[in-house]
Amino acid sequence: MSGNIPGLATDAVLKESIPVPDNFEEVKGIDYSNPESRNSKAKFLVNSMKTMGFQASSVSKACDIINEMRSWRGKNISELEDHEKKGEFDDEGFQKTTIFMGFTSNLISSGLRDTLRYLVQHKMVSAIVSTAGGIEEDLIKCLAPTYMGEFSLPGKDLRDKGMNRIGNLIVPNDNYCKFEEWIVPILDTMLEEQEQFAKEKGADCLDNDVPFWTPSRMIDRFGKEINDESSVLYWAHKNKIPIFCPAITDGSIGDMLFFHTFKASPKQIRLDIVQDIRRINSLSMEASKAGMLILGGGLIKHHICNACLMRNGADYAVFINTGQEFDGSDAGARPDEAVSWGKIKAEAKSVKVYTDVTIVWPLIVAATFASDESDFDEKK
Amino acid sequence: MSGNIPGLATDAVLKESIPVPDNFEEVKGIDYSNPESRNSKAKFLVNSMKTMGFQASSVSKACDIINEMRSWRGKNISELEDHEKKGEFDDEGFQKTTIFMGFTSNLISSGLRDTLRYLVQHKMVSAIVSTAGGIEEDLIKCLAPTYMGEFSLPGKDLRDKGMNRIGNLIVPNDNYCKFEEWIVPILDTMLEEQEQFAKEKGADCLDNDVPFWTPSRMIDRFGKEINDESSVLYWAHKNKIPIFCPAITDGSIGDMLFFHTFKASPKQIRLDIVQDIRRINSLSMEASKAGMLILGGGLIKHHICNACLMRNGADYAVFINTGQEFDGSDAGARPDEAVSWGKIKAEAKSVKVYTDVTIVWPLIVAATFASDESDFDEKK
Amino acid sequence: MSGNIPGLATDAVLKESIPVPDNFEEVKGIDYSNPESRNSKAKFLVNSMKTMGFQASSVSKACDIINEMRSWRGKNISELEDHEKKGEFDDEGFQKTTIFMGFTSNLISSGLRDTLRYLVQHKMVSAIVSTAGGIEEDLIKCLAPTYMGEFSLPGKDLRDKGMNRIGNLIVPNDNYCKFEEWIVPILDTMLEEQEQFAKEKGADCLDNDVPFWTPSRMIDRFGKEINDESSVLYWAHKNKIPIFCPAITDGSIGDMLFFHTFKASPKQIRLDIVQDIRRINSLSMEASKAGMLILGGGLIKHHICNACLMRNGADYAVFINTGQEFDGSDAGARPDEAVSWGKIKAEAKSVKVYTDVTIVWPLIVAATFASDESDFDEKK
Amino acid sequence: MSGNIPGLATDAVLKESIPVPDNFEEVKGIDYSNPESRNSKAKFLVNSMKTMGFQASSVSKACDIINEMRSWRGKNISELEDHEKKGEFDDEGFQKTTIFMGFTSNLISSGLRDTLRYLVQHKMVSAIVSTAGGIEEDLIKCLAPTYMGEFSLPGKDLRDKGMNRIGNLIVPNDNYCKFEEWIVPILDTMLEEQEQFAKEKGADCLDNDVPFWTPSRMIDRFGKEINDESSVLYWAHKNKIPIFCPAITDGSIGDMLFFHTFKASPKQIRLDIVQDIRRINSLSMEASKAGMLILGGGLIKHHICNACLMRNGADYAVFINTGQEFDGSDAGARPDEAVSWGKIKAEAKSVKVYTDVTIVWPLIVAATFASDESDFDEKK
């Protein structure tokens, strides 16, 4: 082999680049010469992550989008025509963003429940979508705790002991027995109420304006009945924040409703999902601006995105989950896929953070929704 | 450093192992000295994968479990008491496995729809659970095609053109306009029928025994109306295979139902999900043996598992999806988590294959459900 | 709520799409009316997957790219100037593609080893990159088998028994003891040879043209010594296919070399990695066309890509692994990231298949490298 | 259907559980009634995550393990026999943990470089393993910046502009041209030094005790030459922390070495990897306790684990990466797999956090290595 450096290789390796555009932002990390870097606060950390790249940057961008969706203000209600007086308003009467938050069942099983409850308690979100477990585990935790476990605990041993595993968490099956005791009288009352209006309305009992049971109405009732300040549902009821759960039968509540059909036969509670799709879609259409906080994937993600199609797209979107796009799942789809459907506006601010929600949501909330140290007293 | 080999290290590195137990199976792969290895058939390939390890072995195990759940036979119906005459029977009257198949919406969007339809057409499954897209995309494909695209196509351009992206697939929005034209008259008729029985029954119109609209009943009607042999729903209707979809409002059908509530107001179609949970749970309890084929994650996985809790666990379970357990999601949970809940029996045969379903389901079906070359004629 | 369908929503939902371009390809799956669909052959299956979408399409595209890289032919050697007579040629003297194949260690531990060996045995690849385990496990399997295990086997029990786990595989530690017995005499000889040329050359013993030990030269020696037709290394030696492994010390071979430094002290085998980077880069520069088959991620992926930068990009690239791009890893990078670096040509044919390699490589090979049923005899 | 609740189902659903063991820990999250929850500090956050479950708990456990490995102290050096005076000692002469930190190349490209440098600057780790990019990008960043980009930027456009993409980061190719200018004179000097000792030693120039170039020695030289306080390599040189990189030719340094073989021919720098395996393994054997911090997967993970086999296992292990075990990769293997190999002790404290490192490492460091607010001044 000769002593000449091969030109083909040097041309490829040492190819010149164009001048770096002025608007390029340098990658840099935490400045450890700053005393604030020690045991740093959430906002310092998140701000430092902005120029770190990879998912650190995405976390920082998620915080920016959340801050923007929370701080947006439109016209004052006094300036609006009557038919425009809809959507969310702040205390001074200015239009603000309608925020749809979706979370999967497992997040309520986890300690994130306290963070989710904090957001609902302080009216920081406008509407919620969850799956069945996200409803029932919130209630059950008011009756008995969930415990820490391990991902590797063998299923047979656990079943023998009546211990149910959710990832690295354990829920004793007695919790579900307690839940049954709690819910059956409520279901009885719900059935009575249904019968009552059926008797009153007769053949018209299926009309639009009848207070027919829907998942969101049932959840609101549960929130009222549980009457426990640790509960997401309690505060949603208090603060009139609707919780949607079209497949509410897919879990323990479904088991209880199933048993109840035998107990109540030939009567049966009916849960209508058409009225609820009208309700969530209407919230989307009425919103001045719409923001999405999607924690997890599957139904809760698609349902909020689909509702936002009714307004030709959300204005802000934060997705956090572990789904990947390569399998064509909606769970794994990037925000840009939702843009193609008109579920997110082309000009919207959006980001997807690829991670387990529990890792990052406490930090994000500490740097956004729960960032203001001065107003602690009034938040109590 | 001295010339002596360090004993600490050699003891650790050269630690002796116990004798290899007799039942240990050697890892080995394809025997390329066998002419069958060339352009090999599905069964040869899958059999060779059994001892390959990693997910190759899991694919092979999935085939074994499918073959076992399909071939199991119990008593003849003539030997059974009347109250035992439930569940599935083969043509000679022997008990067989009730097979619950769940698939996510995206699989119907993909070319797997033909494979799923094949299974339904030939009565190879007993009940189905899907999400809204899994219902409506099957119908829409009878009206207009879905097309190949790219994961990287920009959302804004697509929206401008009215082209919706699902992973690397494209659905023109006109398809949904055609779907609206098709479905509105059917919804009108469904509402009429609902009004009819409400008039007849009056206050009793909510009772158990009323043919109230449920997702599964609506889907069956759609299958009848579409009347197209390429459709999963068509064959499900023909073969009386129920399709469950508790959140059927979460997609285009929901959009259409939403619009219909305005058109029909104050009337409104009601879709009850309580009756459907009773229906799927009953199928589980009546089954002689229960098998699960879970293609994807989320609702469709949880719903079938939950139904199988009613019988204290499925006997066979095949999970195929890309979910991981580390985030505590049900989507990512291993079969052993379902064992802890009593959703899969401790002694059941189960496997999870970690992959996009489209990669592996065609091969698995070719090696199991569609493996018999001799009986092609009668299958037509 | 009024009876008028909201225009905002209908405009968004029923947005018209542009006419479907003529070149759009319909999504469709397997045609089960075709008898070939029963227990179907690999090529039928892969061809049917082309229009299925998601990763099924990617598998089919991978096969197309492999077929194209294998069938490409350039000029005949008789037409070339002397300095152009480099790269790979077929038996008739026509230029063909230089194929770089990379695979991670675990694939040799798995049953895929037989498939990888088949490719090397029949000279279907031109050069290989692997990691240390990919070298030593091939040798060790000639001495004692690897066994099937389970992902969930507890580590402590296994260590007590001297059983090492690789995913769902088990390697008894005695295998490594046997490996030590096999390798020590070879290392002794290698050291002698090194001393010999050092004595001969004196101060010039570090020059370019000295047969200094490098990972690829050591691997070639091992391939010769193992003398076993089941071995990848054996056939690589036989067929003069270089195997590169810059970090060959990172595993059992490294352990043995470490021990050997004590035994041989003050002498020591030296393994130079500079000569090997010159060797692999030269192969890339000399190639008429370059193709990449990347099975897994990490070093083996980056090393082949980096070598292809020396020719301003590969012409064909197939990546198969489970890495995701969101963490900014090279393992997870899409081919398009390599295009930005000049490691893959902008006009190259490339695809990434997102899956465990063991699921899909047997099928891909059956449909490409091992697809020709007619030429079985001569392949023996 | 009768009015009796089915016993099979109620028995399964309402199965009693054993009493909850006393040592069970309740799942709970952040206490938002605590003012510290607002814009919370890293330690508060991480402590609150301990009982959240899923990966939040794993992050908290990682911090506990790090604190434990950092605070462990053994005997005082004055109590030890001469042959025991090895491993790491604190300023008072007490034995402390030898901490091996591995990180992948992309983390140096990201803003995490500042965090990694902080750890090296303050001697918080004992030895480092990285891949080629982890070495060269640290040096290159001293010459010119890396910039923020997007994952979706098209490769062809970037190549035309000479802009290289690493996930969502951009490195102008001119940076590599600057790197070439910087490194060539250093390589020239290194070659001169090599020639010098070869001349002096003659045939003995390959012996153990010759300062032959190895990756770790070359990296140390680079750290000295770069002489820049922003650099990881600079501080590693200053603080005598070895950096191992067996495959250092796999990147831009390899390109430069490749070119240099032509320039210097017939002379050639030789880089020996056998001496380096002896060096890292010796560090492991000499350690009083060994801890592993593995940031990413692939070579850097395996190399540290393998070194720890030489001591029959690490005492502490923290893995953070996105790898999954299902494909049998070492990258995705859980710590328990390393236990089976003797690379982690059975009684060691270990955890794997499943996430992109950039999301979580800044928080972890803020809550551990950089948690002490009081000692800021002395840390400057």
TrEMBL record, chains A, B, C, D:
MF annotations from Gene Ontology: deoxyhypusine synthase activity
Signal peptide: none
SUPFAM superfamilies, per the entry: DHS-like NAD/FAD-binding domain (SSF52467)
Top-level taxonomic group: Eukaryota
Known EC number: 2.5.1.46
Protein's pathway: Protein modification; eIF5A hypusination
Enzyme class: transferase
Cofactor field: NAD(+)
Catalytic activity line of the entry: [eIF5A protein]-L-lysine + spermidine = [eIF5A protein]-deoxyhypusine + propane-1,3-diamine
Cellular component terms per the entry's GO annotation: cytoplasm
Similarity comment: Belongs to the deoxyhypusine synthase family.
Protein purpose: Catalyzes the NAD-dependent oxidative cleavage of spermidine and the subsequent transfer of the butylamine moiety of spermidine to the epsilon-amino group of a specific lysine residue of the eIF-5A precursor protein to form the intermediate deoxyhypusine residue.
Protein name: Deoxyhypusine synthase
